[in-house]
Amino acid sequence: MTNPTLDPAALTFRFRRAGCEIEVRPFQPGDEAAFRSLNEQWIAKYFVIEEKDSEVLSNPVGKILERGGHILMALAGTSRIGTCALLSMEPGVFEVAKMAVDEHYRGEGIGRVLLECAIIEARRLRAHRLYLETNNRLANAIHLYESVGFSHLPSERVMPSPYARANVFMEKLL
User: Whole-model pTM?
Assistant: First the structure.
């Protein structure tokens, strides 16, 4: 991560990208529409929005937060420009999911910082493993995951996915 500052009380990260200060903070009431919109943008661009997407995106509080998960939001000023979720799978294990960056801010390293902040949050929560599902069409995302230490799972360790598009499965041991 490039020179972030952490406010330990609020678990908020601040850094400069795209010529402005970017803040990564925990999900707050009022973030629901941006969480949905950011994710629908990228999913609809490459795939179709599936039933499981609609369930989670229409109710992030009930489907993620109330089930022991966490959501991070990236902001440029007051604009919500990115998000990344940690979905609780079992004690000590989270799925990295619903990671999205607004098209106008892609290529600025915001996705990397969101992912690194999610890893920091998972460690703070005493997780020992992160899991994720993606698609081989998303080569840049796969490269990002590999660059922060995710490795590909062998087919015998892959769990059934609720997403038809999922064909790459990875994990990171913490």
Answer: 0.90
